Amino acid sequence: MMTIEQIITALDARVLRGHDKLDQNIYCACCSDLMSDVLAFVNNEKTALLTGLTNIQVVRTAEMLDLKCLIFARGKVPDEQVLDAADELGLVVLTAPRTMFTCAGILFEGGVRGASLPWPGLES
Question: Are the C-beta atoms of 115 and 43 separated by less than 8 Å?
Fold first, then answer.
């Protein structure tokens, strides 16, 4: 688990929205540009979504799953429509100047885990 404040520090991230919600705890993370995968595998609302996809579908996916934080990798910044929609939902939105893989590794080292997959033989 990490707080969003700790995530910002660890990833050298910049806050785009949700400055007043940085004390929230994040237990899980999901990395994907396919929102159908996010919908299929995320099962914890205290999850951060790491993505390079900057369209409104990312916010809609976060809304459906009651996610708390969006992290846009590779320094990407979504347009104002996307940021405003995220703001309306109370999401924290960050941009990090690292690849998704690197962000995921840093979060894992900090105690954030991925979703458990329901496949036989796999253990989380």
Answer: yes
77 falls within a domain: yes
3-state secondary structure at position 56: helix
Q: Is the pLDDT of residue 3 over 70?
A: yes
In angstroms, rounded to a whole number, what is the distance separating the alpha carbons of residues 34 and 9? 27
Number of independent structural domains in the chain? 1
The residue ranking higher by pLDDT, 40 or 67, is 67
pLDDT of residue 123: 55
C-alpha distances out from residue 28 to 5, 20, 31, 83, Å: 15, 21, 10, 22
Instruction: Tell which residue, 10, 124, 19, has the closest CA to residue 69.
Output: 19
